[in-house]
Amino acid sequence: MNPTYLHAAVLAAFAAALPASSVFAAEVSAAINPKAVLSVMERVADWQLANPSKHRTDDWTQAVGDTGFMALVGISGDRKYRDAMIAVGDKNEWKLGPNHYHADDHIIGQTYAELYLQLRDPKMIAAMRASFDDILANRRTGTLDFTVKGNQDRWSWCDALFMGPPTWLRLWSVTGDQRYLDFAVSEWWVTSDYLYDKEAHLYFRDSKYFDKREANGEKVYWGRGNGWVMGGLVRMLQYLPANHPARPRFEQQYKEMSAKLLTLQQPDGLWRASLLDPASYPLKESSGSALYAYAFAWGVNQGLLDAKTYKPAVQKVWSALVANVQADGKLTHVQPIGQDPKSFDNDATEVYGVGGFLLAGSEVYRMAVLDKAKPQTVAVANGTDGLRGDELVEVKLAGGIKAPVVMDAATSAILNSQVIGGKQLLFSVNVPAGDTRRYLVLPAERLAATPPADVKTHARFVPERLDDFAWESDRTVHRVYGPAIIKDPKEHLISSGVDVWVKKVRYPVVDKWYKNGAYHKDAGEGLDYYHVGQNRGCGGTTIYADNALHNSSNFQSWKVLADGPLRSVFELTFGKWDAGNGRMVSEVKRFSIDAGSNMTRVESRYSASGKGPLTVGVGIVQRDGQGDYVTDAAGGWSSYWEPQHGDDGITGCGVILPAGASGFTVADKQQLALGTVQPNQPGQPFVYYFGAGWNKSGDFADGAAWQAYVRNYAQKLKAPLKVSSK
């Protein structure tokens, strides 16, 4: 199903449809249980959506709010919050703010990267990547002295540590480009070495405050400024690899600051605008306090902070923050930008305050969910030197967990998951090179809501179109032909070849395209221009004997074993055919396609008369014209980048034989990867992969990119992610 890609113009109508404040008869609850915490978070978020800020949608104020909305997206059962974030990205054309080097104009990229992790749309990070590449190519090395022109081309003020480095780190996480990680870490410590007071364990806002003093003679350390740093530390530690050499230093600073800030919490649970002279700044302030609540709760949930020491502080500040929420959801006591922190209206609000509140709520929510829980902990390790992104892992469910959900242990986000066969749990992971990520498996009943799944795979029999069987992932579509088309007076097609439909969207299209029937022209999603006929198409098999192809007829029967959202599995049965010299063969194929993959896995089980192995050829049809066909016997793969097909584009096809290819040949214009199988052996299927890509999908600009994908996929099969569970 198509995720609702709202545009910014729709938000006004959306806001008008939200409940009026008079609907909220009940006061908000400060109770720390999943239902109460999520309820107040959604009420605050709904008020903000109904009363949007007047800032630019790429401004830092709005972007901080968006970070909170993304935290809510990870736990809410209502998809409207993600729709609103997609609308922001669409309005911004997925670009950063106008000031190329300024950290404030980078923070919106955190939302883009987190949306990309869910939806994997290349446009969401393309402009940010180009911008950051240019910054690296023209890196600034000037002073951080705040009185010198151009200083803000670097992170010369402490707020920047929330805005900038976590954005770079998220881009590294989704691309695997080490340069982004190195920049984030090195520049953080340049700023820290300049602004962090190693005795006070607090940050100066910028260099202009080094010699300033409060009325009581204390140094000036701003409450919200240090809140930005604490939030930035959390958002760095969420993605920084556990084995990174700088991680201990980040954790040390986080713990030092936490210990100091704990002593500065006021009796009402909040922190004041000035940390060391609260008496001169008596007004309650929500935004900085929310960031401390976020940081403390996250540390308790991670085991980095002692729960007995810090949990009471979290409970106290959460109660105080909720007390600042009006019945209609408006968050109050937020210090406005540039206004005297000693004098602002009690009902003042700002979208960045809402962002901090939602971030805090997401970790308080997790604290409540995990209270007295015994989750199954799953560790996924990537021992290779490349990013393993948008890849499924599989783990056996621990006993007693029914209707499981998967929580990212570094954040509070609930991930897409699927149960196969009642006992095996699938979920999608993103694990950078050399890293290990942890996940928590819990019964859904512990949550207040479960975020709706993104359906990324689908498989079905299509009787309304002559018994086709079609399947898809969020990357590609295939179909094969059933018995009805053989007898159709217009078709009379006997073929077990595999068809390709190309797509440029990440949502399912099979049902939609079959329904409207107009899929031979691209209406913005993709099309079917691939011709199979009696060829092998992309990934069709044959028995190769006596230098000739012996193809089966159309499939005779089908069975769907699983249908998304992350994996679809089905079986097709092919009746007996002559595989050469009167040897009769029949076949059952089990197909499996995963979210995030252009490749379909197939297990073929052959029954045959006679003795001896069969030589199976997995085929790719050879087109007229200049294509690029590459084979790798050692790697067990072949790749074909077809000639241009007019305005429709170029299709790539790949085949992988994990057990290795015994050879490659071309016969009857079919490019075959050859392997052998012993028939009549139920536990020894012939396993192969095939898949297709398109130069207009946004994933493969040219044949080299497609070839690299096939090669890397084959290599990944030989070096699977290591999954452990306890």
Describe this structure in words.
The protein is an alpha+beta fold. Helices cover 31% and strands 23% of the residues. The protein is built from 17 helices and 28 strands. Helix 5 (108-119) packs parallel to helix 8, helix 8 (165-175) packs antiparallel against helix 9 (178-195) and helix 10 packs parallel to helix 12 (286-302). It is elongated. It starts with 9 loop residues before the first helix and ends with a strand.
Which keywords apply here?
alpha+beta, 17 helices, disordered N terminus, five-stranded antiparallel sheet
**Alpha-carbon distance between the two ends:** 35 Å
Spatial order of strands in the largest sheet = 17-18-19-20-27-24-23-22
Put simply, the count of helices is 17
Please give the number of β-strands. Answer: 28
- What's the overall average pLDDT, rounded? 95
The major beta sheet can be summarized as: 8 strands, antiparallel
By secondary-structure content and strand pairing, the structural class works out as alpha+beta
What gross morphology would you assign?
Answer: elongated
What secondary-structure arrangement, pairings included, does this model have?
Blueprint lengths: L9 H8 L16 H17 L9 H14 L6 H13 L15 H12 L3 H15 L22 H4 L1 H11 L2 H18 E2 L4 E2 L19 H15 L9 H16 L23 H17 L4 H17 L27 H20 L5 E6 L6 E9 L7 E5 L5 E2 L1 E4 L3 E8 L4 E8 L14 E5 L5 E5 L4 E4 L3 H4 L11 E5 L6 H7 L9 E2 L10 E8 L2 E3 L6 E7 L3 E12 L5 E11 L4 E10 L5 E8 L6 E5 L4 E5 L9 E6 L6 E5 L2 E8 L8 E9 L8 H16 L3 E4 L1
Antiparallel strand pairs: 1-2, 3-9, 3-28, 4-8, 5-6, 5-9, 7-8, 10-11, 11-12, 12-13, 13-14, 15-16, 15-21, 17-18, 18-19, 19-20, 20-27, 21-26, 22-23, 23-24, 24-27, 25-26
